[in-house]
Write a structure and sequence with these properties.
The chain is mainly β and about 240 residues long. Helix content is about 0%, strand content about 20%. The radius of gyration is 19 Å and the shape is globular.
Length: about 240
């Protein structure tokens, strides 16, 4: 089955607790095919260890139209390189996992309609750039997984609108951390994973914006010539 047709679930009128697609050769989900309430949606790929060899290569911009909320979205190990700007604009998500795909970029504010989203996983893609608008509107986001991409910098105030407590951004190509790069609105960061980057500069004050109750910073395996300055409440 190459695609999920828009009339496949036409008889469903109630909330579906969990929906898992593991159909061999699935490449497309047609707009309107998921026009019901979902709590858990998983699209299994050939990397999952489960049966199935699905490799989604593209998303229709309207594939989630009609769905008010999906609590958990798991779409990992596929071949899509980009997301339509309005893909998630009419549906609220609480947990989104888009890891191990081929994503090269993210639209600004692509999840802004999900202010209650708490966890976002994007590790193992091909992201080279994130902007200070990428995570716009994600005021409840507390855990963000960006490791093993190709990100070269963290622009100032990238995470400002979030409530991040845990940031996993190791294994990228980041060369410097500026003073405002890690700032969140309420200084919420408690755990920062920066190891295996290309860091040669960490500006003084870069960690002043972390949680004053204590923050753990992991920064080994970089190119720093000297130990950066850490506030007294930051642990290494």
């Amino acid at each position: 089955m190459a695609s999920i047709k828009d009339d496949l679930f036409r008889e469903i009128r109630h909330t579906v607790l969990s929906l898992v697609f593991s159909v061999e050769g699935l490449q497309e989900i047609e707009p309107g095919a998921l026009n019901f309430s979902l709590l858990d949606l998983e699209i299994v790929s050939g990397l999952s260890g489960k049966s199935g060899n699905n490799k989604i290569t593209d998303f229709s911009p309207k594939v989630f139209d009609g769905i008010r909320m999906i609590k958990r979205l798991l779409v990992s190990g596929h071949n899509f390189t980009h997301l339509p700007p309005d893909l998630f604009s009419n549906t609220e998500f609480l947990d989104v996992q888009l890891d191990m795909n081929h994503l090269e970029e993210l639209p600004d504010g692509f999840l802004r309609s999900s202010p209650n989203l708490t966890e976002l996983s994007l590790y193992g893609n091909r992201l080279k750039y994130i902007s200070n608008k990428t995570f716009e509107g994600l005021t409840s986001l507390s855990r963000l997984y960006l490791f093993r991409n190709q990100i070269t910098e963290i622009p100032p105030l990238t995470f400002y609108e979030t409530s991040l407590s845990e940031l996993y951004i190791f294994g990228n190509n980041i060369t410097s951390i500026t003073k405002e790069a890690l700032r969140t609105r309420n200084c919420t960061l408690q755990s920062i994973h920066l190891y295996y980057n290309c860091l040669s500069i960490i500006e003084e004050g870069a960690f002043d914006c972390t949680a004053d109750g204590g923050c753990k910073v992991y920064y080994s395996k970089n190119c720093l010539s000297e130990t950066p300055h850490f506030p007294a409440y930051v642990r290494m």
